[in-house]
Amino acid sequence: MPVLLQILIATGFVSLIAILAVVVFLRKKTINNLTSLVSLAAGVLLAFAWLDLIPEASRGIDFHEIGLVVLITIVLLFVVENFFHWHNCRHKNCEDAGHKHLIIFNLFGDGLHNLIDGVIIASTFIVDVRLGVVTTIAVLLHEVPQELADVGILIYSGLSKKKVLIYNYIFALTAIVGALLTYFFAERFGNIIPYLLAVVAGNFIYLSLSDLVPIIHHTSREKVKLQVFWFIFGVVLIYLFNILNSH
């Protein structure tokens, strides 16, 4: 089987499973407490940035460069957010407030992350088929919980289930774009991957701590323990997936 076909099958499979997981989640999950989803998403994105993206980026560039890229990304997002007067809810009617900036930041991070997944899968298949299969499984393991976290953010931001599915499908295609770019421009494209990983990490850290955690802080005292549980659960979930990937 040609390498390009193997790459497209693997990348398409990961995207398909992630989309199916979102469909099942939206159909089976009764979303009564959106703040719990936001808490879970905050924990998942924060842990994913520190335990997955940054260590992966360190394979190509040193920690000083990673830290600088992450910091620049956070600063730029802060400037953009304030320039457009996007801000976190600071009043009692939090649920009624718009959160369009969450949609933009989340889709940006998700699209770039999926593109990098496609790059990683394609680059490993080019080296060795068995390595590509193992990498595909590893990508799939972290892709599903991360996509579900994205869904929680998009729903909280006010998008309908239909729009969430449409956006999820569109941005899942960036994985195939990344795979194709890598196959045809492997030597040139590979050098910037660590920097892109650092950008995604900075985006997820900013989104988690600047936008999602403040939302959690505005929940009622009766729900604090529940939100803390979901936040920690999100962190532990990514940690366990990383342990599984290392074996």
Task: Write up what this structure looks like.
- The protein has 247 residues and is mainly alpha-helical.
- Helices cover 82% and strands 0% of the residues.
- The protein contains ten helices and no strands.
- The protein has helices spanning 3-28, 34-57, 63-83, 100-127, 129-156, 161-172, 174-184, 186-189, 193-217, 224-246.
- The two termini are 28 Å apart.
- The relative contact order is 0.23.
- Residues 86-97 have low confidence and may be disordered.
Task: Name a few traits of the molecule.
mainly alpha, 247 residues
Mean pLDDT: 79
Sheet with most strands:
none
**Secondary-structure element string:** HHHHHHHHHH
Total helical segments: 10
Helix content: over 70%
Query: How many DSSP-defined strands?
Result: 0
Low-confidence segments: 86-97
Which structural class do the helices and strands define? mainly alpha
Question: Which strand-content bin applies to the residues?
Answer: under 5%
Radius of gyration: 18 Å
Between the first and last Cα atoms, what is the distance in angstroms?
Answer: 28 Å
Which of globular, elongated, flat, extended, rod-shaped describes the shape?
globular
